[in-house]
Amino acid sequence: MPKGIVLTTDEQNHRRHEIFEAALDTFIEKGFVETSMREIAELAGMGKSSLYDYFGNKEDILIFVMEEALENVLNNARRINALPLSPEVRLRQIIEMHLEYIVENKKLFYLFSYEGRRMSSENQQRAQQGRYMYQDMLRGLIEQGIQQGIFREVDPLVAARMLINTIIPVVYTSRPTGAPQVMMQEILDIFMNGIQK
Amino acid sequence: MPKGIVLTTDEQNHRRHEIFEAALDTFIEKGFVETSMREIAELAGMGKSSLYDYFGNKEDILIFVMEEALENVLNNARRINALPLSPEVRLRQIIEMHLEYIVENKKLFYLFSYEGRRMSSENQQRAQQGRYMYQDMLRGLIEQGIQQGIFREVDPLVAARMLINTIIPVVYTSRPTGAPQVMMQEILDIFMNGIQK
Amino acid sequence: MPKGIVLTTDEQNHRRHEIFEAALDTFIEKGFVETSMREIAELAGMGKSSLYDYFGNKEDILIFVMEEALENVLNNARRINALPLSPEVRLRQIIEMHLEYIVENKKLFYLFSYEGRRMSSENQQRAQQGRYMYQDMLRGLIEQGIQQGIFREVDPLVAARMLINTIIPVVYTSRPTGAPQVMMQEILDIFMNGIQK
Amino acid sequence: MPKGIVLTTDEQNHRRHEIFEAALDTFIEKGFVETSMREIAELAGMGKSSLYDYFGNKEDILIFVMEEALENVLNNARRINALPLSPEVRLRQIIEMHLEYIVENKKLFYLFSYEGRRMSSENQQRAQQGRYMYQDMLRGLIEQGIQQGIFREVDPLVAARMLINTIIPVVYTSRPTGAPQVMMQEILDIFMNGIQK
DNA sequence: AATGAATGAGTCTTCATTCAT
DNA sequence: GATGAATGAAGACTCATTCAT
Q: Boundaries of each HTH tetR-type domain copy (chains A, B, C, D) (predicted)?
């Protein structure tokens, strides 16, 4: 690293990602709290205090990447939701996209499920806002299906959450019976069968 | 607290429960790792070192209660499974019992979902054994239903886990649309509808 | 103490010595086990945790200096042993050097005699290796003397150890009858007289 | 142990010995400081607090037996010293008796050499008084020998201590070349040879 | 006489963070 | 921009001793 050259915001973000990726495995293996800044610095191949040039404190390392991931899933879902397709198909596509995204960022989401609670309550609330938006989008889709007479009169929010909550376990089960995508299709079938008239 | 009197095993267990209950809220609020032994002692109204008369170390506090809870759910499920009822009815009753047990021990199970990973791998394995047994019991029920022609030919293990994984979110959602029991009935309806012929 | 400057290995070793020297008196007065890291830090004029930048743990403080001292005595003895002098003269010179070294590092050796047992067995073994080498060197000298007909046919290892074991008490007696060097001459005379023909 | 029966002083002393003997091996293996009262109690097969019925505190356990041992050696030496024998023979007999006593109470003396320093300075002084008496007795013997023209004009105190300091290593060497008694004879020969005219 | 439950003081060690260079 | 030396606060855990029974 040449000294004295000012990093652009993009370069900074790039480095931030590198740092996070370097530490991700250890975060998962030992837990976020249990991983020390010294360890993170070593994994990232930099000095302890240089971390503080990229993140204000330890928690920020967690938040930075989480915000991005949440944003990405939400945006992708919004894009799909805007397509001129039936509620049923959009629902399936969103869940498939969501699954795919988690599969691709498997470690990241694993970390969030278990270490997200380590963030300050302020940051936890922001994360929850995102989750609510997502739930509401699926709820809206189910409501549309009900109004269009495709789905039975189920509680749309309960159903939406039921569906969302099946994704994570599919990716992380220690006893998979097939590829996540295959298991997810099975679940989607049961679910769709269960809410369709 | 009397000083030199010998405690019976029962009294010891009672005290252990008291200590755990005293600390439970803080475990949940701040996390198990983030709660210090000093804090636990204060909450339990005893000296720091007296904790070690009841638990060998910090982790044991977690294990002691978890072991019990797991055992209870498993035993209850076995009892129901042995009743001369149709697979469908037994499935519903087990899930209802399970839900009820979690509702009654809401905080406890919340803690296990999020802090279970803090246990030593040895203890995590024992917990997983229990979970596997439970999953297998439900899988067996679904298989029976399939054989009896009541259920469609779904992947029984995927279906069993799908069902199990909906319980926790029902109890802990921050946006409930009704009593957990009511939400669970909705989910059971969707699920049963989804797997029935 | 400058804060962010990188210390060279030499500077580190120098600081290590300073820390040890600062704590030496207390080690002797109260014992190594009985001296706390907090105390050592205070005596060394630094923060408790800074000690761990110089020593991996408490035991390492002991080992670091011991290793050096052992090495020094052994090397000096080897140098003298290589001189073209009679066994008798070499024996005398080695013992005199040894005495001198202990006199100069009086506290250090006192500490080792009494607190060496506090080291991990692994480190104790390494120390014993050094002692054996030293014993064997003196034994060799005595054997040479016997072969050359200067000394009587004594058990050379027993004699070597007899001689070595007289040094420490000479330095540390609480009732000295003269300078250690003088007392040692007296002992060497008795010893030489005792083994000579 | 029947309750309510008052122990005589002799019975108390007997129990004290039992407690000490039970813990002796552990004292040596791990060190006195490193052995906890709980451990001692377990080894002695009694309750923690019952120890305090026999010893005022942890240190007293060490002192009690040490005083006895010192007293015994001193008395035996005095008895031999009063025999109508030549200084040379008395010297040899005392050292032989001393060696025998250490061999028979090997562990005990090993403990004192290394853990004696753990006693309060008050108790250490009492122990030193005893040692001085013993040294002076041997010094007196050597002085007699010099006056009688049997021994050369050596420093009698230095010589006495030289002799005393060879006993412990003979018993505890990790590389014995024979029975302690045999090695001691070798040393006595060298010593006598060294001081005789 | 005998016990073990209770405890406060103290142990070694770790860590996020700061700051002089 | 980058570093690692420095540190106070805190952590889990141990222990000699007391005391009610």
A: 13-73
